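Long-time lurker, first post. I've been practising inverse folding by hand and with some scripts of my own, and I keep getting stuck on stretches where the C-alpha cells seem ambiguous. Below is the full C-alpha cell string for one chain I'm working on. Before anyone asks, I'm not after the true native sequence, just a reasonable design that respects the backbone. If someone could post their per-position residues I'd love to compare against what I wrote down in my notebook.
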C-alpha cells in the first residue's frame, strides 16, 4: 500500500517530474509565448486607446495621452504599441516552427523575402524623412506649439481625415526597423544553410 501511494503522489501535478517537464516546455516555447504576449498587449493598447477618442485626427488619441505601463513609468499608447509590435514580430521569427520554415524554404523564396524586406525598408525610410521634415516645418511656421498636435492633412483626395504626424512617424519607424530585423534574419538563415550544406559535403567526401 505504501509503494502504491508513493507512485500516485509522483504522478500528481505537484511532482518534481511534472514541474521539470513544465519548465522544459516553457523554455522550448518561450519565444512563442513572448511573441503572443506582446502581440496581445499591442492589440489591447490599440483597442483601449481607440475606444477613448479625443479628436477627429487619425492617431491623435494614441499620442495625446500617456498610460502607466509600470509603477512610475508612463508611455504614450502609440509608443507602447510600436515597441510591442516590434517585439511580437522579432520573437515570432525566432519561434521554433517559424525558424524551421525559413530553414526549409527554397533559396528563391528567401531571396524574394529578402528583396521585399529591402523594398519595405526603402519606402519606410522615405516616410520617416518626410514626416520629420513636415514636423519641423509645421513647428517653424506655427511657432512654439505642442509638437504632439502637428498633423498632415494631405493629400486631401486620398486622405479626407488628417493624420497625426507623431503617430505616423512612430508607425513607419517601427516598420523600418522590422524590415531591417528581417533582412538580418534572412542573412543569418542563409549563412546557417550554407554552413550546413558545406558540412554535409565535407562529411560525404570524408
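-- Answer (accepted) --
I ran through it position by position. Result:
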Amino acid at each position: 500500500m505504501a509503494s502504491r501511494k508513493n507512485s500516485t503522489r509522483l504522478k500528481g501535478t505537484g511532482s518534481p517530474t511534472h514541474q521539470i517537464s513544465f519548465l522544459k516546455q516553457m523554455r522550448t516555447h518561450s519565444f512563442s509565448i513572448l511573441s503572443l504576449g506582446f502581440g496581445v498587449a499591442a492589440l489591447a493598447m490599440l483597442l483601449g486607446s481607440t475606444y477613448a477618442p479625443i479628436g477627429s485626427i487619425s492617431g491623435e488619441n494614441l499620442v495625446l495621452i500617456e498610460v502607466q505601463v509600470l509603477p512610475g513609468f508612463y508611455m504614450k499608447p502609440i509608443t507602447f504599441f510600436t515597441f510591442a509590435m516590434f517585439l511580437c514580430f522579432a520573437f515570432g521569427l525566432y519561434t521554433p516552427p517559424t525558424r524551421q520554415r525559413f530553414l526549409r524554404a527554397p533559396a528563391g523564396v528567401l531571396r524574394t523575402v529578402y528583396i521585399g524586406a529591402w523594398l519595405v525598408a526603402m519606402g519606410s525610410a522615405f516616410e520617416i524623412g518626410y514626416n520629420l521634415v513636415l514636423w519641423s516645418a509645421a513647428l517653424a511656421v506655427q511657432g512654439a506649439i505642442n509638437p504632439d498636435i502637428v498633423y498632415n492633412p494631405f493629400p486631401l483626395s486620398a486622405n479626407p481625415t488628417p493624420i497625426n504626424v507623431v503617430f505616423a512617424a512612430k508607425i513607419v519607424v517601427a516598420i523600418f526597423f522590422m524590415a531591417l530585423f528581417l533582412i538580418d534574419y534572412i542573412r543569418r538563415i542563409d549563412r546557417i544553410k550554407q554552413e550546413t550544406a558545406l558540412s554535409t559535403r565535407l562529411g560525404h567526401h570524408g
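A couple of notes from the structure itself: DSSP finds seven helices and four strands in the chain. The helical segments are 2-10, 16-28, 30-50, 77-93, 96-104, 107-142, 165-205. Happy to go over any region you disagree with.
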